[in-house]
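Q: What structure does this chain adopt?
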Amino acid sequence: MEAFKEFYLGQQRRLAMAGKILFPIPNRRVSKRLYRVTAPTLVLWGGADKLIVPAYGERWARLIPGAQVQIIPDAGHMLPYEQPEIFVDALSRFLG
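A:
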């Protein structure tokens, strides 16, 4: 019974951690703090991102003063790997 209890508690801890890692974006505290960002900011987002939809990138860009947003078509959540040329070009233009 003790081994079952330890297994069950361990599973619950792992699931709780996975939830925190996999679903941080709906955390409204992030949105409430974005106004503090003062550095020039480029928000790059994959237009086909199924994990965190592009609407979050657009909203973050509105909440960060002076931020620019670029949605990269045909890229998902791993846009630097899925569209590396477009990613590097957008970043290079932003950095000058």
